[in-house]
Amino acid sequence: MIKTTLLFFATALAEIIGCFLPWLWLRRGASIWLLLPAGLSLAVFVWLLTLHPAASGRVYAAYGGVYVMTALLWLRVVDGVKLSVYDWLGAGIALCGMLIIVAGWNRA
Known about the structure:
By secondary structure, this protein is mostly helical. It is built from four helices and no strands. The chain has helices at 2-28, 35-49, 56-77, 85-103. It is flat and about 50 Å long.
């Protein structure tokens, strides 16, 4: 379970970085060269999704919970936005959903 969760967090970071870099280019006037590492990051994201042992739909459903938590942590650390109790509560619930789905992978 820990290995799967860490793999999901790495997957989420790859996706967020792959989307954040083009956002910097489009919205903040950063260099167009950021699209190269963005594309690489998104390729890593897709590859990481293939490393999970469950059917793709289950992987995507479980990944969503970790993505929510990772995106909020990104919001706090990178964007410097203070998270509310509702942010933390929602992320915790989403993460619990991921754990429930992953716990059932071998039972389906």
